[in-house]
Design brief:
Arc Repressor Mutant, subunit A, mainly alpha, disordered N terminus, 39% helix, 15 helices, transcription, DNA-binding, two-stranded antiparallel ribbon, 438 residues
DNA sequence: AAACAGACCAACCGCAACTAT
DNA sequence: GATAGTTGCGGTTGGTCTGTT
């Protein structure tokens, strides 16, 4: 919105300017010992803006309480600072947020919580107030609709970071980065881990760089991989013949949450964001709650439709998962029952395998609320606002990042349909296109 | 056309951290 | 170390705009 600063004034800006000038003159005449100046509140006038800009031009930023004294502007220092930082300072980017910015905000919020100023530092030209307003309105709307607050990519990252407690939580790769740079960014994001633990992005990175299609022709031997197989209908198999979502006989639904594009980049948004690879080569697809339309498939039907040349891919993925499985152990449940994933060199202990399996189930549950009943995937328009998704309120300000538990409450949609609707491929219900759906 | 609801935005308030004396 | 002043941040409020009924 580009509202005029004086839009809500009961008097015109000119009148306000006149009043300000009068007050300024009176104050000058009154001199020392005069009654305390009654500072003005409310929207700023263009004249006040001009005075403030002129002051900053002369004296620079800071020392805001001196503005009133030096210019006669009837505003407190706080108000001056706010006006300057939010509206008058140069290089401010006005207008609505771009899809990239929206995604970055989601990522940053997942990472930082309500740290608007720190988020603004990652968004040049944007103010904390702007980001805060944006997030609050979008979040409120989505919660009311029972939709997940975070995009699926961010949910996955949250799921991984929530299940695994690490020494740090590295910056996310920028969605603006081109594909190769994103892989580098992922590397950079994981490179700072000095402990023996894996970086939280490792799983996704491995999946991203594997660059292979996946398939499950039979139940995987690894319990770690079973959830993937159980939800195989949510994987895309790039090697197979293209299966149209509308193809009645198509066993697979081409969902495309492409982690290889860096967290937060939907592969369905290639027009907006650079893909990892310039060529549409085969890639691993992770489960997603994105649906172009309803696909009431069962895993059995999915498996029945697999083509033989995908067998090798399944083995490849399973091998990769097994390696990951071997590299991670699960601590005994904490007091609160949370399992803690940690790296270790040996094989799993007796109970670890089951818990890893549970972890992956949990991950899928968080990612895809419909997984437990895929046959009931409703039509996109059947939103079910029966769950108040919640954002974590990170009240523990400035916690030591080495100990911070990014316990963001994953805003899982209560209704199976909500995520379908929200992250649909038709552009109607995308993250960045929510403004008028409720 | 009017009423209403929701979205959007600017600005205020209180608090905490920081800095100077 | 205590105090006052300043700055920054996050939560909240209130006004306007816009779409819907």
């Amino acid at each position: 919105m580009e509202k005029s600063p004086g839009a809500v004034l009961t008097s015109s800006p000119e009148e306000e300017e006149e009043k300000a000038a009068e007050a300024y003159g009176e104050e000058q005449q009154a001199g020392e010992g005069a009654a305390p100046v009654v500072l003005k509140k409310g929207p700023w006038t263009t004249a006040e803006d001009a005075m403030l800009v002129d002051h900053v031009r002369r004296h620079g930023e800071g020392n805001w309480n001196a503005v009133q004294r030096l210019t006669g502007l009837l505003r407190c220092g706080k108000s001056c600072r706010l006006r300057w930082t939010n509206h008058l300072r140069p290089n401010l980017k006005k207008g609505s947020f771009s899809p990239d910015e929206e995604l970055l905000i989601a990522q940053l919020h997942a990472q930082l919580g309500n740290k608007w100023a720190r988020m603004a530092a990652h968004l040049p030209g944007r103010t904390d107030n702007e980001i805060k307003n944006y997030w609050n309105t979008r979040t409120k709307r989505r919660q009311r609709a029972g939709l997940p607050v975070y995009p699926p990519e961010v949910q996955l990252q949250l799921a991984l970071s929530k299940r695994c407690r690490y020494d740090d939580f590295s910056p996310l790769p920028s969605p603006q980065l081109p594909g190769a740079a994103n892989v580098q960014a992922l590397d950079a994001a994981t490179a700072g881990y000095t402990s023996s633990r894996p970086a939280p992005l490792d799983l996704a990175r491995q999946l991203a760089v594997t660059n292979q299609t996946v398939q499950f022709l039979s139940a995987p031997s690894s319990p770690w991989a079973r959830p993937f197989a159980r939800n195989a209908q949510y994987f895309q198999f790039a090697h197979s013949s293209p299966v149209s979502p509308s193809t009645p006989t198509g066993p697979l639904h081409p969902v495309t949450p492409d982690l290889s594009l860096g967290y937060g980049v939907r592969s369905t948004d290639h027009s907006r964001l650079a893909p990892l690879s310039p060529s549409p080569g085969p890639r691993v697809e992770l489960p997603s709650n994105q649906f172009g339309q309803a696909m009431p498939l069962t895993s059995a039907a999915t498996a029945a439709g697999l083509v033989p040349d995908q067998h090798q891919n399944a083995a490849s993925l399973e091998k990769m998962l097994q390696e990951l499985h071997d590299a991670i152990k699960v601590d005994p449940p904490a007091a609160n029952g949370d399992a803690v994933l940690e790296r270790h060199g040996g094989r799993e202990n007796k109970s670890g395998g089951q818990r890893r399996d549970d972890d992956m189930d949990t991950l899928f549950d968080m990612m895809i609320p419909t997984l437990n009943a895929p046959e009931t995937v409703p039509l996109p328009q059947a939103a079910a606002p029966n769950h108040s998704g919640s954002t974590s309120h990170h009240s523990s300000d400035d916690q030591d990042p080495s100990t911070v538990d990014l316990g963001v409450d994953l805003p899982v949609a209560g209704g199976a349909s909500s995520s379908d609707q929200d992250w649909g491929l038709d552009g109607v219900c995308q993250w960045s296109n929510m403004s008028r759906i409720c």
